Amino acid sequence: MNVDLQAVEDAAKALYIRALKVLPPDIKDGFARLQQHESGATAQSLLGTMVRNIAVAEQTDNLLCQDTGIPIYNVTLGRGVRIDGFELQQAIRRGCARATREYPLRSSVVHPLTRKNEHTSCGIGVPVIHIDFSDAADTLTIEMIPKGSGSENGSFLRMAIPAEGVDAIKTFVIDCVLAAGGKTCPPTIVGVGLGGTSDLVVALAKRAATRPLGSVCSDAEGAALERRLSEAVNQLGVGPQGLGGDSTAFAVHIELAATHITMNPIAVNMQCHSARRARATFTPAGVEYGF
Amino acid sequence: MAHHVLEMPVTEAQVRALRINDTVTLQRTLYGIRDATQIHMFDRGRRTRFDLQGHAVIHTAPNVRKVPLDADDRAEHPAGYAPVCIGTTTSDRMERFTRPLMEREGVRMIIGKGGLRDGSSQAFAELGGVYLAIVGGTAALETTWIERIEDVDLDDLNPESLWRFAIRDFGPLLVAMDSHGGSLYRTVQADTAARRAQVLASLGVKA
Questions:
Q1: CA–CA gap between residue B90 and residue A40 (Å, rounded)
Q2: Is residue A177 a contact partner of residue A215, using CB atoms and an 8 Å limit?
Q3: Taking CB atoms and an 8 Å limit, are A149 and B89 in contact across chains?
Q4: Do B111 and B59 contact (CB within 8 A), yes or no?
Q5: Which of B67, B85, B123, B133 could make an S-S bridge to B176, C-beta 3.0–4.6 Å?
Q6: CATH class of B3-182
């Protein structure tokens, strides 16, 4: 399957705007579950405002949140997909810049030293573009995640050691949720990366934080731990916006990798309640948009 | 837990009447301010031509659309900007600017999400100020409370300019920190810290 570069550019633009406007159904279901179990009056009121905002955004065709985030594009190339990799990256950059200028969106991206904003949501190394491969024949998917900064600032890395064991993991996750408090716009998805190297473990945490609600860690031990941690974090009482309540997180998600005999790396990355993502799937039949 | 409707600007007495868990709806005028705005105002000595005495500022950097000078609806967009999506951001990063905002500029109310720290609580108590919590991530809704962008200053920092919004029925907002030392965030933090040991024990973590 050949993929048209103009179609990729158009999709990169459309995905950014779509992700900012429409929350995936699994997140909406997540809100409904939290509303069923929340015992705090203030917390219920805050959840109600969040749910109302989702409807207002759809009714007024507006962005859910003012934070257009750091744009992230996760590209997965299936078997038999033919495309020039460099051109693919350039097409995504162009689409991201066009979304920003043409909509127009707030460009939230600046140079880290000069703080200069090019007003394109692009800069050195941004948008973040990850390219991966899959077994699916004649399929190219692009997942777009506008990652909000309030939750991204709630990112933590700890290179624990083997003698600290799983207790170090549990303690670190709980302490990160406490340290984040209301700053990460709870209820959050708490993404936990385990194992690998220092860079891989942080990437795993991000993948965990942006996984759909209801999805489960593919490793059985990881799945068991994420269930226990999901229950535990909602006993802490942080609540929506850090103002108290049962609804601190939609879930804790874990992604893991093998690691070195001397290492026990742990990373935490959080996704805010406006857990935005959008997906375009290219097949020989055309482009289809979803989540 | 009273509800207050306040025409901006307000007096010190009006602010001192607010208590945590009260709710507030603001009318008329609101200013938007952000990290870069305050870094330039207080670290780099820049001054604004706006009079912020008795006013409320919201921690924000909005999505806006530029409106040409000769547009038909120019009167609706006196600053040359139309609002697209306006919400709030995490306040904690701007903690150290609370006192200078109040002392130098006369600001009485700060609106944001996630709360401020003890330094701000002290400034609110000494100088007469409050922190009003707005729900983060609900900007589509909050945009409907904003009538227009009336003026803009320090616009070289765009989108982190100093914005003046005309507002109608902006709220309800929750009084989360008051001028009597009250802070819902401090209460919740004490509560969550107290629960930590029990939660870790439930996970089988050895003390």
A1: 23
A2: no
A3: yes
A4: yes
A5: B133
A6: alpha beta
